[in-house]
Specification:
181 residues; three-stranded antiparallel beta sheet; 40% strand; 10 strands; mainly beta; seven-stranded mixed beta sheet; 13% helix
């Protein structure tokens, strides 16, 4: 994901300096643009996102079917973007509640993976943080918000190729392989 040839600059849609409005807003390096008029340099960094791995009985993983683009209709894990002033742990708890109705009681950080997320024609670069989450109970889980359907899939039946987002697909592989790189 990192050194891809012929990729567009992540700020290619920004034509004007966000500080002074000048059109002299030029590529500075692979992650920033610089305003030749006022001297402001704008950096693009990945957005924080969270992914929840929720096990039932240590043998089944909670999986959602995406209700919206990108990758609508494919499998995913509960999660999403962290909000301003919210920790990643708070964000994963909120996202699980919004998508499944479940209340996370504990979170354990596992690993992170970079991702690209195309939304409304804009390619967001994210840093997806994977958490092993425990929930109060699983019987009340139901699909809400960005989830069209919830599934409990036995670990031995998980197929990473069924997951539509690159980082989640790779995250499933890492999780099943107990986190090797």
């Amino acid at each position: 994901m990192h050194n891809e040839p012929n990729r567009e600059h992540p700020l290619q849609l920004f034509r004007f300096c966000p500080k002074c409005g000048s059109q002299r807003f030029v590529v500075h390096d692979e992650k920033s643009k610089h305003c030749e008029a006022c001297g402001f340099t704008f950096y693009t960094n990945p957005y924080a996102a969270t992914v929840a791995l929720i096990l039932r009985g240590g043998k089944e993983l909670l999986v959602v079917r995406r209700a919206k683009e990108p990758a609508k209709g494919t499998l995913d894990l509960p999660g999403g973007f962290s909000d301003l002033y919210e920790t990643s742990e708070e964000g994963v708890r909120r996202e699980v509640r919004e998508e499944t109705g479940l209340h996370v009681t504990t979170t354990r950080y596992l690993f992170s993976l970079p991702n690209r997320y195309l939304y409304s024609g804009w390619l967001e670069h994210t840093m997806d943080m994977f958490f092993l989450c425990e929930v109060e109970e699983t019987e009340t889980a139901h699909a809400m918000d960005d989830a069209a359907e919830l599934l409990w899939i036995p670990l031995q039946d998980l197929r990473p190729a069924d997951f539509g987002l690159d980082s989640v697909r790779l995250g499933i592989e890492k999780f099943l392989g107990n986190f090797p790189i």
